[in-house]
Amino acid sequence: RVAVVAAAGTAAGAAWLYLKEEKERRQRARRQEELRALALGQGDFQLVDHTGRARRKSDFLGHWVLLYFGFTHCPDVCPEELEKLGRVVELLEQENSQKGAHKGALPPIQPLFITVDPERDSVDALARYVQDFHPRLLGLTGSAEAVRAAGRAYRVYAQAGPPDASGEYLVDHSIILYLLGPDGLLLDYYGRSKSEEQIARSVRHHMDTYQPLPM
Q1: Residue 117 belongs to a domain with what CATH number?
Q2: List the disulfide bonds (predicted).
Q3: How buried is residue 158: exposed, middle or buried, by Cβ count under 10 Å (0-12/13-18/19+)?
Q4: Under 8 Å CB-to-CB from 213, ≥6 apart: which residues?
């Protein structure tokens, strides 16, 4: 009887695990289809980083990327989101540090910041700005058209407001962090309400279950 009960319990456990994995697989497949339908982040961009080096999106193929669009004159939201982005990267790096060279260590992730205000955000301005955030944060700028093209690929909204008496202005823009997989395509995105811990957990899950998006 004990053997029969144990066998039944093992079978039930295996069935539950199968159903759970199948449900997660279907959820991932549905999410992939949704992202493919949105067609976000496809194509390339041609910008310049804060060291003056020409950068294309294809330069980051094979790497995980967390991307944020903003501008250096942003008074509070952009600094908060870039600090969150940096903290997410740090949480993932801390996890890798704890695991060391053991199996299960996560691949590194590249933080990127693309300006929506290229008129003021020159290479030098970005170089000064990114110093306040994660040491591996890359700031990207370029011509107005190149920046707009990069933003359009992710359906980023950006609209400059009227200048004040001193000529300064703010830019109203989307507040989203984008996660790109090693194939360069969008895997997920996170609004302002997501905490750094929630984002880190999501990124970790994507890394653990990664499959290239079908084209």
Answers
A1: 3.40.30.10
A2: 74-78
A3: middle
A4: 32, 35, 36, 181, 183, 185, 187
Counting beta carbons within 10 angstroms of the beta carbon of residue 131, is it exposed (0 to 12), middle (13 to 18) or buried (19 or more)?
Answer: exposed
Within 131-195, residue ranges assigned H as helices are 144-153
Statement to judge: residues 75 and 29 lie in one domain: no
Q: Which structural domain range is residue 34 located in?
A: 1-38
| Cβ proximity of 207 and 106 under 8 Å | yes
Has 63 been labeled as part of a binding site?
no
The reply, when asked if residue 173 is annotated as ligand binding, is yes
Considering the domain boundaries, does residue 55 fall inside one?
yes
- The sign of the dihedral angle between the CA atoms of 22, 27, 31, 37 is positive
110 forms beta bridges with 65
Number of domains forming the structure of the chain? 2
Q: What is the pLDDT of residues 18-66, one digit of tens each?
A: 776 676 566 655 665 665 555 566 668 999 999 999 999 999 999 999 9
206 marked as binding residue: no
**Residues 71 and 158 grouped into a single domain:** yes
For residue 146, which amino acid is it?
Answer: A
Residue 150, pLDDT score:
94
pTM for this entry: 0.80
